[in-house]
Amino acid sequence: MSQVYKLYINGKWIETSEKKDVLNKYNQEVYASVSQALEKDVDHAIESAQQAYKSDALSPYQRFEVLKRVSELLIEKKEELAVCILKEAGKPLKQARSEVERSAQTFEVAAEEAKRITGEGVPVEAAPGSENRMAFTIKVPVGVVGAISPFNFPLNLVAHKVAPAIAAGNAVVLKPASATPITALKLAEIFEDSGLPAGLFNVVVGSGSTVGKQMMKDDRISVFTFTGSAEVGLKLKQNTGLKKLILELGNNSPVIVDKEADLEQAAKTIAQKSFAFAGQVCISVQRIYVHEEVLNEFQQKLVEEVKQLKVGDPSDPDTDVGPMIAEKEAERAEQWVSEAVESGAEVIYGGERNGAILQPTIIGKVNKNMKVVCDEVFAPVVSIIPFSQLDACIDEVNESSYGLQGGIFTKNLDTAFYAARKVEVGGLMINDASQYRVDLMPYGGIKDSGNGKEGPKYSIKEMTEERLIVLNLTK
User: Fold this and answer.
1) Contact 441, 242 (CB under 8 A)
2) Sign (positive/negative) of CA torsion 436, 442, 443, 449?
């Protein structure tokens, strides 16, 4: 019999009458059941968070201690958490282990940043008539942070929302993805063991139509941090009024392979960073622009690298590509590939589907109007697009409605810096693929890829308010 997980509200585990099964994404068997939150449970969580925040429960150093302890416990429980991620997300074991390690780093960085939150001096005395005044700013927490996280990183993207919120002195109400809620509930257990006061972290599981809607309309939540599709991000923006939003949305990451690139490095890196977690990463490589002079050589090298990827059971320590989050998503991606082929594209490699597993797929002879090029495929599918002139290539790259991260491979420093100035993305990786990310860096996009930044230091700025203090000196 599968284990039943409960909601975590105000430091207590709460079981509800409604349950939902969470499937093992590889074999489609029931892994566990999770209580589903009703509107009253969401209200209870928000009320608990607000009261915990108002109690001013933790000093900056105490926040550091709690977050550092969470980081340590994540490492202690790495295998347990990795297996959980493997089962509920279908993420290959070695990638799941890496996610736990990265999550520990995210909490460690946030712990350190909790001790570095500062304002600045403001020289008001330089203004005529204010010679007897002094001023400075302080950073104050916003209050309650509403966090909505996706399925693809059920631990680390939760960490990127929760850790900086706690570091800044806020309380959090988290809605994890319905497909992968268990890892977040295990994180709540870790917070409980770390000594976090009740109410500062709450986890409510349920549908967007119930939990998400209830959170959106509650004025007690001051900031929302959301990772997901552009469509849902827009809906969140339209329904939360003037509240501050940190939105990490979709992408269709471009990577340029210049004629002066190291083709071995480019092929190897792109193969690794296009198909990790079956391409279900916002910054997975999707569009590969290759200079026509090196097109055939690069394409051959890329195919050889992709052939070396092991596809199948995510519990196998050697597996590189496992199942997608659901069979219907694999069917959707397969259909997009079929539509492209019907319009003149060709499958260079892969394309076969077995249930929720879609083989790593490379497509050529595409055009910019095909879904596999202009939309976010979010699957193990890449398209190769030849170019002759860098300017025209960058113009085509920039036609996308997305702009999260991109990459360029080139040995030419002038070309690298020209691309850095011209490619419209939140981050450009030089001699690396778009999927490069470390957890202390600023991370965020432009256009339909969202606004605001993640990375603990940068999220803390988003999750605090700057308050001006002016002293009118009498002497």
Assistant:
1) no
2) negative
Phi-psi label, residue 11: left if phi above 0, alpha if psi -120 to 50, beta otherwise: left
Q: Find out whether 265 and 431 touch, Cβ atoms under 8 Å.
A: yes
Considering only CA atoms, which of 137, 10, 27, 51 is closest in space to residue 469?
A: 137
Which residues are part of the catalytic machinery? 248, 282
Domain(s) of CATH 3.40.605.10: residues in the chain: 3-249+449-469
Tell me how far apart the alpha carbons of residues 228 and 466 are, in angstroms, rounded to a whole number. 28
DSSP string, 122-189: E-GGGSTT-TTEEEEEEEEE-SEEEEE--SSSTTHHHHHHHHHHHHTT-EEEEE--TTS-HHHHHHHH
Q: Note if the pTM is more than 0.85.
A: yes
- Tokens 């083989």 -> residue: 359
Q: Which two tokens stand for residue 270?
A: 């792109």
CATH entry 1.10.1660.10 includes domain 3-249+449-469: no
CA angle 80, 86, 92 (to 5 degrees): 120
Please give the average pLDDT of every successive group of 10 residues along the chain, which has 475 residues.
Answer: 91 97 96 97 98 93 98 98 98 98 98 97 97 97 98 98 98 98 98 97 96 95 96 92 93 97 98 96 97 98 98 97 98 98 98 97 97 97 98 98 98 98 98 97 96 97 97 90
359: nearest Cα among 394, 338, 330: 330
Homologous superfamily (CATH) for 253-439: Aldehyde Dehydrogenase; Chain A, domain 2 (3.40.309.10)
**CATH 3.40.309.10 domain extents, the chain:** 253-439
